[in-house]
Design brief:
Blueprint lengths: L3 H22 L8 H6 L73 E5 L15 E4 L5 E2 L4 E3 L4 E22 L2 E8 L7 E11 L4 E6 L6 E4 L7 E9 L3
Antiparallel strand pairs: 1-2, 1-10, 3-4, 4-8, 5-6, 5-7, 5-8, 5-9, 5-10
Length: about 240
């Protein structure tokens, strides 16, 4: 081992014990010594990140915060479907009776009616027949003294007469306001008692008069009445003129 190579190896062998001895005496190498400068290398690369540590213990709950401001009302939702009807509840107890109400005003009832009969035989012709036997005349709308019905309530009236015919023929007519409206004729049969009748609906105004009258000569006034035979005249208001 001669030449430069042998010289370098020998130099290293001589220097190594000296560096070892110095290291044994000091804790760390002195950066100022030639040996320390010779041992220093280039800085290494950073290592990889370590694994995450375990979760720590839960902390204690903090104080309750203050209530926040109310938010804006949202839009109205769609109407839901109608649900199934529930079961009928139990029936309640009857309530107490209420107080009796005040009496109301009754509707006005229009009344006008009469029913009369003959008491004398063979009434005179061409004048109103006076029926003086009163069956009904509560409103006194039939005038017994004249034999005429006087209208006090305008409206529609029904009139009828049933006359016993005896001794001679009968011709009678029903008058309204001095005008004959209907006529009835019955021919008398000897040894017999007959009946003559008629009826009519008339509209009357206030003050109108209605009556029966024999017309013609004396041989046509066979209207008769006695204890067992009646001749009657009647009429009543069917419905009034509400106007």
């Amino acid at each position: 081992m001669r030449g430069p190579t042998g010289f370098l190896l020998c130099s290293l062998l001589l220097v190594t014990p000296h560096c070892t001895e110095v290291a044994a005496q000091d804790v760390g190498p002195d950066p100022k010594t030639p040996c320390a400068n010779w041992m220093g290398g280039a800085p290494g690369y950073p290592g990889h990140n370590g694994l995450p540590g375990r979760d720590g213990k839960d902390g204690k709950d903090g104080l309750k915060g203050e209530k926040g401001e109310e938010g804006m009302q949202g839009p109205k939702g769609d109407q839901g479907e109608i649900g199934v009807p529930g079961r009928e509840g139990p029936r309640g107890f009857p309530g107490y009776s209420g107080q009796k109400g005040e009496k109301g005003e009754g509707a006005f009832i229009y009344r006008s009616a009469f029913s009369v009969g003959l008491t004398e035989r063979a009434p005179h012709p061409n004048i109103p027949i006076r029926f003086s036997k009163i069956f009904y005349n509560e409103q006194n709308h039939y005038d017994v003294s004249t034999g005429k019905f006087v209208c006090s309530i305008p409206g529609t009236y029904y009139f009828a007469y049933h006359l016993t015919v005896y001794l001679t023929d009968v011709k009678v007519s029903l008058y309204k306001k001095d005008k004959a409206v209907i006529f009835t004729y019955d021919q008398f049969q000897k040894n017999n008692v007959d009946q003559a009748s008629g009826s009519i609906l008339l509209h009357l105004s206030t003050g109108d008069k209605v009556w029966l009258q024999v017309y013609g000569e004396d041989d046509n006034n066979g209207v008769y009445a006695d204890n067992v035979n009646d001749s009657t005249f009647m009429g009543f208001l069917l419905y009034p003129d509400l106007d």
